[in-house]
Amino acid sequence: MMKENKKLTASQIALNMVKTDNTDRRFYETSVKETDVVLNELNTTVNGLSEDMVEKMRDLYGSNKVTHGRKKSLLKRIFEAFVNPFTAILSVLAIVSFVTDVILAEPGEKNLTTVIIILTMVIISGFLRFVQETRSGNAAERLSEMVKTTTAVERQENGRHEILLEDVVVGDIVYLAAGDMVPADVRILKAKDLFVSQAALTGESEPVEKIPAIVKQGEYDSITEYHNLAFMGSTVVSGSATCVVVATGDDTLFGAIAKSMTAKPIQTSFEKGVSSVSWILIRFMLVMVPVVLFVNGFTKGDWLGALLFAISVAVGLTPEMLPMIVTTCLAKGAVAMSKKKTIIKNLNAIQNLGSMDVLCTDKTGTLTQDKVVLEYHLDVHGNEDLRVLRHAFLNSYYQTGLKNLMDISIIERAEKDSVKETTLQGLSTNYVKVDEIPFDFERRRMSVVVADKNGKTQMITKGAVEEMLSISSYAEYNGKVEPLTDSIKQDILATVDRLNDEGMRVIAVAQKTNPSPVGAFSVRDEADMVLIGYLAFLDPPKETTVAAIKALNEHGVAVKILTGDNDRVTRCICRKVGLKVDNLLLGSDVERMSEEELKKAVESTNVFAKLSPQQKATIVSLLRENGHVVGYMGDGINDAAAMKVADVGISVDTAVDIAKESAHVILLEKDLMVLENGIIEGRKTYANMIKYIKMTASSNFGNMFSVLAASAFLPFLPMASIHLILLNLIYDISCTAIPWDNVDKEFLMIPRRWNPSSISKFMIWIGPTSSVFDITTYLLMYFIICPAMTGGQLFHQITDPAMRTYYIALFQAGWFVESMWSQTLVIHMIRTPKIPFIQSRASLPVIGLSFTGIAVLTTIPFTALGSAIGLAALPAVYFAWLALTIVCYMALATLLKKIYVRRYGELL
Fold first, then answer.
1. Are 726 and 887 in contact (CB under 8 A)?
2. CA distances (Å), 45 to each of 49, 52, 54, 829, in order?
3. Residue 633: beta bridge partners?
4. Other C-beta atoms lying within 10 Å of the C-beta of residue 36
5. 3-state SS class at 295
6. Rounded CA gap, 807 and 880, in Å?
7. Coil, helix or strand for 122?
8. Which residues, 6 or more positions from 407, have their beta carbon under 8 angstroms from its beta carbon?
9. Neighbours of 758 (CB within 10 A)
């Protein structure tokens, strides 16, 4: 029988590595001891540590910070900015050039100019990349400091209070609730229906239950299976617990894994696309350079000159500025968003925002304000009833789980009304909590058991109306406790529907007196309840929601609502925010559909209500499978799964820990219009990157035709190697302003996705355009300009060596200047489908640098530098021909652009 070959994940391999040291022994010893022994060994009590002991424990065990790999040193960041395939190629070319121009050259002919120019290109590219990465990193770091994750601890002087995760020390008593991140490695002291997700540690998606019971020897194979230990990096899915911290920071299991492995981030489709284009251009260069070398070597007979020319062509075909342009564009977008109080946790999230065409969003706290107002507390007939508010307060106040916005609203309302209502006074002191059954998203309710001073025990449950009706057998109806008949249910649902239609969120409250014995409470006890009434909350939309949804639609982003709330409230909110409900599906509808049916339904449906967290994630995944780039915006624990599977997860600073952890983008302000800004920045980023990629690819493709034509038919090199390299340096400097270029408004109105196939089409269409005018320049210089300046003789007719040298210098100067004009103007031609300078203008930095480059290069043949590198001053008549050439070039390029756009729908 063949043994199953089980593939281990990186995390599991790391866990096995960790088990080889003393970590597992320490955790094992903690798990097999009684809780009082563990507390004693950690010098703590159930009331927590004193402030003196906190400092001692911090000194002894260190702070609660994990070293996620060492912070990159300045030297390493500089090294990484300079190391990429393009700079490697240039460095090799510089070495070859040094050998040929210096080491092998005759004593009087040694020349370092080519080497210096190539190294200058490398320095400019690397330096600009380093500066931009540093700027974006600093901006993100400053903003990240504004997002604080806290945990609830018990300490002797301050009682139960919130502290920053990094301030937790060994021996702290920690309280966990749904939505919390486990702040350190902890031993469970008490737990109620505690389920945690350990996916970050083990890769297992299913939550595991944790209980306080002692672990028996040999009960488990793996540390993470220990049922009374919870680990940093885990998140609480449901339930609550009281724990003691046993390890912090690098001493945690998470810290040990972080030290034993360095996981490379997954390449996004965008990164893969840029990489594929890079290697296409490199392969193109590696194929063409030998062709140029052999053609020139065989036709001219000067193999050293041919080699130097081939090296220069290689430099010209190497898009050495590509890494800098990509990094600068992304970093510039991140810095721009940081000024709008938005944290971009991953630079590529900027580009994903720009390509997003569907935004799925939760309703509560994202589209609506994160301030829920309790409008009514009603009996089952819809009349105001303080008794309903009193029971709701007891449930919300005494629960230890995650207090949501409704809990806070109930507590605030009861405390406010208690000033004049005696029945609401003393509720926080006259009762003691006996037990609780925490909330989860399957039951959609939570229960608290309290006892008053007379010994009367009550179980009070609140939750979604349908779920509450399913566990209630009775209702307080017409002043009496009546069996919950279908007729009474219809009356209750009619009242709830009316409130829902007014945009109210309604939850029901039920109770039963003297339930099961103490210590035996579970979900099974949520039965035969007496429904006493309901609470109606107003959850008004954010002020910017209407404008944000309109702006998103105008920019080609479809908005879909994915909420756990009911359909009536959802419809009302959609109406208020101007979102037309094309089709609405409930979680129950989703459950009944096959995957293929749901794949079709997600396209035509824009509102989904009463969804479970997993259903939200499924819908996002199916939209992505259908070819959409999907963003998901949420702030609750029920949104974390959907955020993780989305192309870009968006959260707010008030979100629960796990939501912020899962997000790629965090909004620090409540203004949803920031989303529009993010999308525009993403599209600007994409536009300016694709401009450089397409202009480089097409320019290189065109230059190859020009060089091959000249190499095959001219009796001398069309340009000396130093000319090509100098031309390339000045052109590269002109390109450094592209990340700051303007982008046409029309381009920003629709989502932009990475499409590598468009680059090859663009190369074939636009590239040869410049070649046409390079060849006309060859003909002009060879048959008209040069003969006019050398007594009417063509090159092969001249016998005087000095005159032949002048003929070549003049020819090369003519192509040198024309190449710069055409190569630089292509920036302005390709950056827009419109007529450049008239219908669409580049930014001032692009105009300034490009025309400065043209001016500098045009004057070189008239200077001492020009004479030193073998160029001759051009006659005035040349510039008349040059003007005609450039006008014709721009006319042809504009015509081809229009044909290309008509055929393929877009230019960039």
1. no
2. 7, 14, 12, 74
3. 361, 650
4. 11
5. helix
6. 20
7. helix
8. 396, 399
9. 17
pLDDT value of residue 510: 93
Q: Which residues contact 76 (CB under 8 A, 6 or more apart)?
A: none
Model confidence pLDDT, tens digit, residues 556-606: 888 888 887 777 778 877 887 778 887 888 888 888 888 888 888 888 888
The dihedral over CA atoms of 176, 178, 180, 183, expressed in degrees to the nearest 10, equals 30
User: Which secondary structure element, helix H or strand E, spans residue 163, and what is its range?
Assistant: strand 159-164
Residues in the chain: 908
Catalytic residue among 101, 362, 385, 407: 362
Q: Do 39 and 33 touch, CB atoms closer than 8 A? A: no
Q: How far is CA 760 from CA 70, 361, 757, 765, 899, in A?
A: 41, 37, 6, 9, 16
Question: Which one, of 554, 550, 616, 615, lies nearest residue 577 by Cα?
Answer: 550
The SS3 assignment for 902 reads helix
Residue type, 13: I
> Is 0.85 surpassed by the pTM of this model?
no
CA angle 677, 681, 685 (to 5 degrees): 175
**Average pLDDT taken over every residue of the chain:** 79
> Could you read off the pLDDT of 443-500 as tens digits, one per residue?
778 888 888 888 788 899 998 888 888 889 888 877 788 888 888 888 888 888 888 8
| Contact indicator for 449, 521 with CB cutoff of 8 Å | yes
* Nearest alpha carbon to residue 313 among 291, 328, 297: 291
| Strand ranges (E), 166-210 | 173-177, 185-197, 208-210
Higher confidence at residue 4 or residue 701? 701
3-state secondary structure of 714: coil
**Amino acid letter, residue 682:** G
Q: Given the structure tokens 């089709």, which residue do they identify? A: 583
CA-CA distance, 811 to 808, in Å (whole number)?
Answer: 5
Helix, strand, or coil here: 774? helix
DSSP label at residue 87: H
Residue written as tokens 């409130």?
Answer: 499
- Active-site residue flag, 362: yes
pLDDT band at 525 (very low <50, low <70, confident <90, very high): confident
Q: Are 608 and 579 in contact (CB under 8 A)?
A: no
Closest by CA position to 816, among listed 760, 778, 762: 778
